[in-house]
Amino acid sequence: MTERSVDRATIKMLKKARSDGVSTAWDRLAAQEPQCGFGQLGLCCRNCNMGPCRIDPFGDGPQQGVCGANADTIVARNLVRAIAAGAASHSDHGRGIALTLYASAKGEAPDYPVKDEAKLKALAVEFGIATEGRSVQEIALQLADRVLDEFGSKRSSLQFVNRVPSKRRELWNKLGITPRGIDREVVECMHRTHVGVDNDYVSLVLQGLRAALSDGWGGSMVATELSDVLFGTPKPVRGSCNLGVLKEDMVNIIVHGHEPTLSEVIVHAARDRELLEEARKRGAAGINVCGMCCTGNEILMRHGVPVAGNFLQQELAVVTGAVEAVVVDIQCIYPSLPQVAGCYHTKVISTSPKAKFPGAEHIPFDEHNAVGVARRIVRTAVENFTNRKPELVNIRSDRQDYVAGFSVEAILEALGGSLDPLLDVVKSGAVKGIVAVVGCNNPKYKQDYSHLTFVRELIKRDALVVGTGCAAIACAKAGLLLPEAAQEAGEGLAGVCRALGIPPVLHMGSCVDISRIMTVAAAMANALGVDIADLPLAAAAPEWMSEKAVSIGAYVVASGIFTILGTVPPVLGSKNLAELLTAGATRVVGAAFAVEEDPVAAAQLAIKHIAAKRKALGLDN
């Protein structure tokens, strides 16, 4: 089992799963081997019913599909469709948050009052909305209305594009990739990739970048900013993580997915006196809510709620035998969860009309009656406690403390209200540069190994790391989100961490919160009067697996940040497209992708890139 993960809790639960006769993601991966070589290269097309068509990578077989599409066109279409799906996923999340703010402002969602009025007003000013002498509800209603307009905007660009340095905006305008409307760019991707439309791989990729930018500087940014308005802007908070956060003597509820509208009210419902008394009557000491994946990130950074793990641990939490309910909404949820839960007493409760799971109990979530639905869900879990099978319970004790919740505002507060101290330590060389480490787990790679190895190589070379999503949880489980982890950092970074009392790896939130990283990058570039591409910044997704990660990588590169992928994307079937993404893009947008499966070599690439940017800015003179 040690070849599957570096995490001890994961290894223990994998052994228990095998003993209990439970199939996990790793077992299902083994059953798929060998995986389709055409698919891994991106050389298969099913975009019409004349196919499916495959291009022979060795040149002896077909070099065109039935319609005449070649390898460049097919691989580019597949890539752009993945970007569209990823952008749609994050942006639809943002739309959901905007609709909740709209309902709150109209008095139709009383369980969601505005928690951060200062941020509401700041965003209103950014959107050109008057705030003086107006109520919070009036401002919120107009802001929500304006934000919802962004999805089908008739304007030439999205509002948040104004945060981007002017040099970068000019480049986007020149290339014709300035995002206009969030839905519009996704729809255009799907149109262009239909049979008989766009056949030029360069043209296709440029539209893919435009759709990705509508995510990064549109839908994802909407989700982040309005979540802060509704639920509070995160500040550094201490908590604990890994499977050891589950409690043998308590009702354990895992919230899993991505939408904080649900998890927020679950947290509050679990503290209800009546429900706590019901739990005690059934022999439980209390109710223990834990997060999983990005919903976990949302509630840990606002409430310090413990996190049971990242993507590959969702089945293993059930395997402990101690979970009464796994409450899911959207994204990154295994269809296998109800099957695994059937081996124990655990109930899987789905809540979104967009995500149904055969075998799960469906309790529709409604923001207009959020607390009522949350109480029903918690009560269902409480009632299930007496069905627990003690002989199958094995939680172990693996848990680790962390400090999380470094929003943009929290970072500015730690720096005294200005980015100047951060810029000063970068200029001095105490911090050589900043690397964003983001993304998923992938069972094709040893869980968390690439994340942790890559990060440790960076911090010991004085690169400050900012993280989101499952990558951030991996760092949390390894103790890298604690100020004490500065002992693993280089002398310069360690000194900065000690002076500010911060970890060498800053947790900035869930995967949509990469928009926070982009906001900081833009602010740094604006402060120095340069483009984002000129900064000593890099990004990496060492264990990525989802279409959302494809969109994220595309908007990060299109924003001017060199990005390293640790798992191989399905584009190698087109030499022209692979060259465009890994080299040619630098000539077009000032940044490109690199693919490096070895995390040590990947870290060296990041450090080399940072050194080159520092030299170009004259910072090492």
Overall geometry comes to globular
Approximate strand percentage:
5-15%
Average residue pLDDT: 96
How large, in whole angstroms, is the Cα Rg? 24 Å
Alpha carbon gap, first and last residue: 49 Å
Note down, in words, how this protein is organized.
- By secondary structure, the protein is α/β, with parallel strands linked by helices.
- It has four domains: 8-54, no CATH class; 71-231, Up-down Bundle (Substrate Binding Domain Of Dnak, Chain:A, Domain 2); 243-392, Rossmann fold (3-Layer(aba) Sandwich), CATH 3.40.50; 405-617, Rossmann fold (3-Layer(aba) Sandwich).
- It is 48% helix and 10% strand.
- It contains 24 helices and 16 strands.
- The strands form four sheets. The chain has a six-stranded parallel sheet with strand order 6-5-4-7-8-9. A six-stranded parallel sheet has the order 13-12-11-14-15-16, sandwiched between helices. A two-stranded antiparallel sheet has the order 1-2.
- Strand 1 (44-45) and strand 2 form a beta hairpin.
- Helix 4 (71-105) packs across helix 22.
- It starts with 7 loop residues before the first helix and ends with a helix.
- The model has no long low-confidence stretch (mean pLDDT 96).
